[in-house]
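Minutes, project check-in
Item: structure for the 340-residue chain
Input as provided by the requester:
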Amino acid sequence: MSPDHPPGLDLDRLRGLLDRERPGLVQGPLTGRLIEGGRSNLTYTVSDGASRWVVRRPPLGHVLATAHDMKREHRVISALHPTSVPVPEPLVLCEDEDVLGAPFYVMEFVEGTPYRTADQLAPLGPARTRDAVLGLVDTLVELHAVDPAGVGLADFGRPEGFLDRQLRRWGKQLDASRNRELAGIDELHATLGRRLPTSSAPTVIHGDYRLDNVLIGDDDRIKAILDWEMSTLGDPLTDLGLLVMYSLPLGMPDSPVSTTAEAPGHPDPAELVERYAARSGRDASQVSWYTAFAWFKLAVILEGIHYRYTLGQTVGHGFDRIGDLVPVFIQHGLTTLQEG
């Protein structure tokens, strides 16, 4: 396929759907482009030459249904769009798999930059980098302050027993993609289970909250939170633990997955935790457990991507090195529990 007709995106069928569901939205022939960087659900930009939109769909092949539910992702951004939480406006949800081969949805295109690496952040300078990362914490506090029932999400998840269920769910996800020995991952899973904390009051959680999954505007403010595929109702400190994990250096130069921790001006994890606790009023004293859980969850996600790569079912670059990261994430998780 040409670059304007990427795999998994039939532009003629998409145009037909948009003309039926949103008459007059599209003014000319569509072109499409896969946005690089996505390691799970696929994200495309689509344009008619005058306007741009974004299409989200599951990966091509080996779909773990619970991790690639387009209807849930569309529902949560639809509920949050009227609030102060910055999310793109959802336009169309399509559950008819005859259109693109899988359910998908279309949303507005938001201008902004997703900063994925310390090198990308560096040109901002220390002061602007610091403001952007602290803004990430403040926006998370804002998300966790939303009343789920007030936005129609009272039944979006089952908060009771959330952490125990999460551990079991990610254990099953691992089993679904397990095709090699991974030293220490069963020990990490078991130790997390033995040290399960008591959850604070449930909130809407993002499930994959990091600088990579928000768009930062020219004013260094967050314009949109993206990639809601892991969202649910549950323990808000799981989002904080993931944010802390991504604020720690991986210690792997040229890694296909990286943190922004080494950018000049990046606040250290302790400051992020303190700011979150002060602004949210939540007890964050057990954040080390949540950080170790984040290392475990990411190890499982990366192993799933590695599994799809071995089957030839990935689109994009960098997948050949994903498998090497998994043992590193496992070891970080074990070390975090020992130090906590």
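Outcome recorded: The chain has a mean pLDDT of 90.
No further action items on this chain.
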